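To the wet lab folks,

You asked to see what we're planning to order before we commit. Fair enough. Below is the target structure as tokens, and below that is the sequence we designed to fit it. If anything looks off to you, flag it before the synthesis order goes out.
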């Protein structure tokens, strides 16, 4: 029998559909998808040995014909050579941009604007292009198919599989060319990416503005902290307090973020006498709108020049695989939409640095526009930039994680040593410290901390306390797995006689949606929190329950036992 590789789309990898009607449509779509997939597998398995490359959420194992060998995108992404994926990601991130001397329109006040968006775009390209491509190549190497079949041919993974087949000289066919809903889904999925960039610009323009906070002193050391998410304040706030005690002025500027918790964190610092504000305070809305009107048509012209360049397609090829047609929409968004946001953040960053006059800048990550824009200004002005990362684990792609800090501060010797061993950081530029987030919890006596947590949530003081760390949906964690996770823990809790269980909601989750879902899953408790300090929870709890998370390291560091739950058969 001949060998056939059937490739489908992957499951949605950028979070959960939050609108009820969209989730309902998606469930109906998955049911239809499974029927189409089962029919295609039955037909192919009559005359061929079939390997299926898909996502767990998209198949019903009960409908698989005998002998079909299933491979999952989410598993393959961990089996591929991470360094090779990183090289491909860097290639796609930088190879297609024009030479800096040839495109002066991509410079803004001395800053090369692609540097502002590079990490954010690299993450998207790794998830959507590099990892699926590497998975397809690996499965082809293992299965050596004589033919590659695409379910409908419209999704990004299927289009990548076609390019791989063309490079290898393997015939390609489509099993369900009339599957209209799969084509519609693929179109809608890709439309979400430019929408994210439009929302970023809109959020900057519409975010409420206040008067910039004045400097407290005219001279002396002054550190500017940039925060983008509420969780950044768990790292920043203890440092700001310590600096104040040492007589050093700290000024905190947040990205334009509508999350109420971020605003409350800033208010708490302001009430304590710390100058705070948001980046948009330094760029009035009318001037921001004028910048958008000026630069949007300019970047469209830049894109047309890039798109007409015959060398771009050749530069985007990777190991003989033509990627230009698949990557083109992402590149167009990078120029026409991402750079508009970059201009806004960059201008606001220049003004903020000029107004505050810091002697050093501190950022807690390097992914987001606000952090990168302020760091770029610091670099242009010769102001030292300290990157104090809250990361605890060595990333599978660490090559770009520390590209904007003149000085790097990491939590723990483990991460420092790994970065040095990998040759990613000059040992003279990196220092290791303890975790100020867990240190705050450690300063409270355990019995007192337990009493405070029980009181804060209205828990029964005579029952065990468990913390369930929720996990948001991603390529590696499907809606089906999430439901099974909650049902499993609920069933286990019933055997324990009703312990106190606090659900720590992930920052990327919709808490209201999770509460509704948990009720449907038979969840026994009502205590959910998205904003409570997870280190206080770990310091007070008898055990923490999770699938897999950096939170496991944080829990163990506080002496909290961890119970890890995973899907059977999943590594």
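Sequence we intend to order:
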């Amino acid at each position: 029998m001949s060998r056939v590789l059937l490739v489908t789309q992957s499951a949605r990898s950028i979070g959960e559909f939050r609108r009820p009607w969209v989730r309902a449509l998606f469930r109906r779509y998955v049911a239809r998808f499974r029927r189409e997939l089962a029919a295609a597998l039955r037909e192919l398995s009559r005359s061929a040995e079939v390997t299926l490359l898909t996502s767990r959420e998209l198949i019903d194992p009960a409908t698989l014909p005998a002998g079909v060998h299933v491979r999952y995108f989410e598993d393959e992404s961990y089996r591929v050579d991470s360094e090779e994926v990183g090289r491909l990601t860097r290639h796609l991130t930088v190879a297609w941009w024009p030479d800096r001397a040839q495109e002066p329109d991509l410079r803004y006040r001395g800053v090369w604007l692609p540097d502002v968006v590079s990490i954010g775009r690299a993450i998207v390209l790794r998830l959507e292009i590099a990892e699926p491509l590497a998975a397809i190549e690996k499965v082809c190497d293992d299965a050596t198919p004589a033919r590659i079949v695409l379910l409908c041919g419209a999704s990004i993974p299927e289009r990548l599989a076609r390019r791989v087949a063309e490079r290898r000289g393997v015939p390609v066919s489509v099993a369900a060319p009339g599957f209209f809903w799969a084509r519609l889904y693929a179109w809608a999925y890709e439309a979400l990416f430019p929408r994210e960039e439009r929302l970023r610009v809109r959020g900057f323009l519409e975010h409420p503005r206040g008067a910039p906070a004045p400097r407290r002193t005219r001279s002396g050391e002054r550190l500017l902290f940039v925060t983008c998410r509420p969780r950044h304040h768990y790292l920043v706030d203890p440092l700001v307090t310590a600096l104040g005690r040492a007589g050093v002025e700290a000024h905190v500027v947040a990205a334009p973020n509508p999350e109420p918790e971020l605003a409350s964190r800033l208010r708490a610092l302001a009430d304590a006498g710390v100058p705070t504000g948001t980046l948009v305070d330094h760029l009035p809305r009318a001037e921001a709108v004028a910048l958008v009107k000026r630069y949007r048509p300019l970047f469209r012209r830049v894109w047309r020049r890039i798109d007409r360049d015959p060398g771009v397609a050749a530069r985007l090829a990777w190991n003989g695989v033509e990627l230009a047609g698949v990557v083109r929409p992402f590149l167009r968004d990078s120029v026409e939409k991402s750079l508009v946001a970059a201009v806004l953040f960059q201008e606001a960053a220049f003004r903020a640095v000029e107004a505050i006059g810091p002697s050093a800048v501190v950022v807690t990550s390097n992914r987001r526009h606000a952090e990168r824009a302020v760091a770029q200004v610091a670099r242009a002005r010769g102001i030292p930039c300290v990157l104090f990362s809250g990361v605890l684990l060595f990333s599978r792609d660490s090559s770009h994680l520390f590209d904007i800090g003149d000085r790097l501060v990491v939590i723990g010797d483990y991460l420092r040593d790994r970065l040095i061993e990998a040759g990613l950081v000059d040992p003279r530029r990196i220092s290791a410290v303890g975790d100020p987030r867990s240190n705050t919890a450690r300063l409270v006596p355990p019995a007192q901390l337990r009493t405070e947590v029980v009181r804060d949530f209205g828990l029964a003081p005579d029952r065990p306390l468990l913390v369930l760390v929720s996990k948001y949906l991603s390529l590696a964690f499907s809606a089906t797995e999430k439901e099974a996770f909650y049902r499993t823990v609920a069933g286990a809790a019933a055997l324990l006689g009703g312990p106190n269980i606090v659900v720590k909601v992930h920052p990327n989750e919709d808490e209201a949606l999770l509460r509704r879902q948990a009720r449907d899953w038979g969840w026994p408790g009502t205590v959910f929190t998205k904003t409570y300090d997870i280190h206080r929870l770990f310091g007070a709890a008898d055990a923490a329950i999770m699938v897999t998370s950096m939170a496991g390291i944080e829990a163990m560091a506080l002496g909290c036992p961890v119970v890890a739950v995973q899907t059977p058969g999943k590594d």
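Structural context that might help your review: The two ends are 31 Å apart (CA to CA). The mean pLDDT is 91.

Thanks,
Computational group
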